[in-house]
UniProtKB/TrEMBL annotation:
Residues that span the membrane, as ranges: 6-35, 47-71, 91-124, 136-156, 176-201, 257-290, 302-320, 341-368, 380-403, 424-448
Alphabetized UniProt keyword annotations: Membrane, Transmembrane, Transmembrane helix
Domain of life from the UniProt record: Bacteria
Organism: Pseudoxanthomonas winnipegensis
Sequence ranges assigned to domain Dicarboxylate carrier MatC N-terminal in this UniProt record: 1-149
InterPro entries membership: CitT-rel, MatC_N
UniProt protein name: Dicarboxylate carrier MatC N-terminal domain-containing protein
Pfam families associated with the record: MatC_N
Keyword match Transmembrane: yes
Length: 449
């Protein structure tokens, strides 16, 4: 049996075992990476672990650690209620605010994971407090990041445009950008109505239960009542009232100022100077811990270690699969199909399936060249195929095994993570199954007709 087939069978086994039994999929993936790669295929330990996503590991740990500190010292609560004040209590506007912010960030050059890492934790904390479906909030954050992801000055846009230019294909930079923007906006609208948007339309203001505070620790000496407004304000990690008078009465503490400066610094460093999100977030978290050691107690325990194990294990095994030649095996077979229209569809699926587990940037650079041979035959419109490939390779970033999906799942409340992970898994499965087909029907088929 060929190495390519062996690794693909291992991938199937991983999903079956982790779905049927209460075992962390990441642990199963590490075991299979050793069994399939190390024993069966003869890879040494360095080769097997060569795919360990050190960058993603540090990003997940650093971001969840930083925002755990921000939550414990009350900064996240403060940000949430400032957001409520800005939208004047119209909860239906919040998911779309998150969508637009992440879209703007990526359109102006931010990496998708960097934008999701900054906006995701705030969005998920807001969803938790005001009973907004966390799946809806997380999906709009990710689709927002992808909506702006192909602007001419963005990372994905730059990769796609360079490959297209090298191949000599007549494809406009703006056409790819607007295609991704429109497709992800349509997906966001579908998600909005499918996952609780109609209920939000009927909730013009937060309920009384949400408006009033629910202290994390009633015995906390840092909690105090705003007399005459029936609200409890807990700057030390509790819940703040959305009552405007009560909110105005809340003074910003020293820890809040340091944390806000740190969050702004994270944004500037990662979005403007393109510094590593994981390294910057970990540095900011450590500085906050040094400034206020007591305020960060228990923050390390709040890191989503089970999610980190899951993502690291799966990505490591996918690298073993790639080193065994499984991806090239499938891609080369697709590119030699004699029917261009069918070949375009299959390349879209290759890009979508692989990108659900691997770097979208890397997949874009690999799948577009696969389409060049049948594009040069002149039977298909190059712009339509490139747009379809761009959408297919990034729309699946909602997968909990991709950086964006993993960041959102890790940002959820601890009691919601497992359920949210499974819901993301189901949704991403539908997107992987139907997304490339939809992109092919919308962008490729009309050019062929």
């Amino acid at each position: 049996m060929s190495p390519q087939i062996i690794t693909i069978i291992g991938l199937v086994i991983m999903f079956v075992v982790a779905t049927a039994l209460p075992i962390n999929m990441g642990a199963v993936a590490f075991a299979l990476a050793f069994i399939v790669g190390g024993i069966w295929l003869g890879m040494d330990a360095k080769a097997v672990l060569g795919g360990f996503p050190g960058d993603l590991f540090l990003t997940l740990v650093g971001i969840t650690y930083l925002f755990a500190i921000a939550q414990k010292n009350g900064t996240i609560d403060l940000l949430i209620h400032w957001a409520v004040k800005v939208v004047r209590g119209k909860l239906v506007a919040i998911p779309w605010v998150m969508f637009m912010i992440t879209a703007l960030l990526t359109a102006f050059g931010a990496l998708g994971p960097a934008a999701v890492a900054i906006i995701g934790p705030v969005a998920l904390r807001f969803a938790k407090q005001y009973r907004i479906n966390p799946l809806l909030m997380g999906l709009l954050v990710i689709h927002g990041a992808q909506a702006g992801g192909f602007s001419p000055i963005s990372v994905y846009g730059g990769i796609t445009n360079k490959v297209v230019e090298k191949a000599g294909l007549p494809v406009s930079e703006m056409s790819v950008f607007l295609t991704s923007l429109g497709f992800n906006l349509a997906m966001a609208i579908i998600c909005f109505f499918a996952f609780g948007g109609l209920a939000l339309l009927k909730r013009h203001e937060p309920s009384r239960a949400e408006s009033e505070a629910v202290p994390v620790n009633e015995a906390s000496p840092r909690s105090f009542a705003i007399e005459g407004h029936g609200a409890l304000v807990t700057p030390g990690g509790g819940t703040l009232s959305i009552n405007p008078v009560a909110l105005e009465a809340v003074s910003i503490k020293r820890d809040h100022v340091f944390t806000l400066i740190g969050l702004v610094g994270l944004g500037v460093a990662s979005l403007i100077y393109s510094l590593n999100v994981g390294l910057v977030s970990m540095t900011v978290a450590v500085l906050l811990a040094l400034l206020s050691p007591n305020a960060q107690k228990g923050a390390v325990e709040s890191i989503s270690w089970s999610t980190v194990l899951l993502i690291a294990g799966v990505v490591t095994y996918i690298e073993v699969l790639q080193k065994a030649g499984a991806v090239d095996f499938i891609g080369n077979g697709v590119s030699h199909i004699g029917i261009p229209l069918l070949g375009a569809l299959l390349v879209c699926y290759v890009g979508g399936i692989v990108s659900a587990f691997a770097s979208s940037a890397a997949v874009l650079g690999a799948t577009i060249p696969l389409a060049v041979p049948f594009l040069l035959q002149g039977h298909l419109a190059p712009a339509g195929v490139i747009c379809a490939l761009a959408v297919s390779s990034t729309i699946v970033d909602v997968s909990p095994f991709s950086t964006n999906g993993a960041l959102v799942v890790a940002s959820a409340a601890p009691d919601e993570r497992e359920k949210l992970f499974r819901r993301f898994l189901v949704y991403s499965g539908l997107v992987v199954a139907l997304g490339p087909l939809a992109a092919w029907l919308v962008f490729v088929v009309p050019g062929w007709l």
